[in-house]
Design goal:
By secondary structure, this protein is an all-alpha fold. It is about 60% helix and about 0% strand. The chain contains 23 helices and three strands.
């Protein structure tokens, strides 16, 4: 039995026994009928995921080739049908739109394992993903972007392969204001975040591609998901190269960040947005050359005072629920209340080389620098990082990423009870 089949076996066994109680299975009770049932069940659920990825790639590849062949006719038809859903299938050969969506969903589930994320590149899957990112269907674009985000998260070899393969320009285009679909923009930003975190070459490439201006412009969007992803990634970029705080101020980052603090709402979504804005403002205020600009930003001091009073008036239960926001609020207030600009801090160079990452497979671990802002949205959270590679690396909500060696799984309990 090859290793890739164990996931299917695990999925099957957990349907019948989760280890919380004796299974009641005794070998002596197995009769030929049960044995035949067991063999058929194992045969059905034991999937070779490497082979399945090749099948998915072949199916999607056939569709992308057909779409390229009929691209001109398809664009002409789209121009004539302004009122139709952009996601409507235009009759490309091969699998229809829903089937392609299902294939990408399945692929996303498979590559959540770090080993299969590597295999996607090895079987030549990246060109197919790039074609889907450039295609006419938003539902395929955002799924392809999420596959990228899942593959590259905390995975330096795959980050390097995907960067060299040309994924960054595709993602930058989809994350920009010219893209009208909010979900596509959100997933593109998610993929960009995964591509550059803890990977210096990716971060440098994004900066050279105008990433800073892209993120600042995204702060002004009415789509809250896009704005939050942009704030979180901007916070990270500024922590890695603090001198970019000056450029962020010049690009106009302060007004939308300050405006975010004036938004009402005690729900978690509103609090998350304020936390993201506070995290970015802390980065800007912690750089000596931009400290005064943040301190004197119109309306900021009034918003901070109002938020402080609002937090003080909360019940004990609500204060606990919004504790992370309160931490960031106190931190920013303290930085701005100082009599002089803060001392210049070194950049948080948290690049993880491919060589260091490969050490994980030999039983070692390595820490990655955490951002100085400790609340969830001041650093990369799970939702902003993409799916975490199973058993190899993780991202804490405080912005800390730690790669760990794989741990042994619990014994499987097989057989009908």
């Amino acid at each position: 039995m090859s290793f890739p089949q164990w996931k299917g076996l695990w999925d099957w066994s957990m349907k019948y026994a989760d280890g919380t109680a004796p299974s009641g299975f005794r070998p002596e009770d197995v009769d030929p009928v049960k044995m035949k049932w067991l063999e058929e069940a194992l045969k059905h659920y034991m999937v070779d995921f490497s082979a399945r990825m090749k099948e998915i790639k072949a199916a999607l590849e056939g569709d992308s080739q057909g779409a390229r062949g009929g691209a001109a006719a398809e664009e002409a038809k789209m121009d004539q049908d302004h009122g139709q859903d952009k996601d409507q299938d235009k009759g490309t050969p091969g699998a229809d739109l829903e089937e392609r969506e299902a294939l990408l969903d399945e692929l996303m589930d498979i590559v959540s394992s770090i080993d299969y994320a590597k295999d996607l590149h090895k079987i030549g899957g990246l060109p197919v993903i790039l074609e889907l990112l450039s295609g006419p269907h938003p539902s395929l674009q955002w799924r392809a972007a999420e596959v990228v985000a899942t593959c590259v998260a905390n995975n330096p070899p795959v980050q390097q392969w995907f960067l060299e393969g040309g994924v960054l320009p595709k993602l930058v285009a989809l994350a920009g204001p010219s893209e009208s679909d909010g979900k596509v923009r959100t997933k593109a930003l998610l993929a960009l975040s995964g591509l550059v975190r803890h990977f210096g070459p990716g971060l440098q490439a994004l900066q050279e591609a105008g990433g800073l201006a892209l993120l600042v412009s995204s702060l002004c969007t009415t789509d809250r998901r896009v704005a939050r992803k942009a704030m979180t990634l901007l916070t990270y970029m500024l922590s890695q190269r603090r001198a970019d705080c000056v450029a962020a101020i010049h690009e106009g980052a302060l007004p939308p960040l300050v405006a975010e603090l004036s938004g009402g709402g005690d729900d978690q979504e509103a609090s998350d947005m304020r936390q993201a804005a506070l995290g970015t403002l802390i980065q800007l205020a912690s750089y000596p050359a931009t400290w005064a600009a943040v301190r004197d930003a119109p309306g900021l001091q009034a918003h901070l005072a109002a938020l402080t009073s609002a937090h003080a008036a909360l019940s004990v239960e609500d204060q606990e629920a919004q504790a992370e926001e309160a931490v960031l609020l106190r931190q920013l207030t303290a930085v701005l209340a100082a009599a002089a600009p803060p001392v210049l801090q070194p950049d948080d160079h948290d690049h993880v080389s491919v060589e260091a990452f490969e050490e994980v497979g030999r039983g070692t671990t390595f820490p990655v620098n955490e951002l100085r802002t400790t609340a969830r949205d001041a650093g990369p959270g799970v939702a902003d990082q993409g799916a975490t590679a199973t058993g190899h690396s993780g991202n804490g909500n405080d912005g800390t990423a730690v790669a760990v060696a794989t741990t042994a799984a619990a014994p499987l309990l097989l057989g009908p009870s």
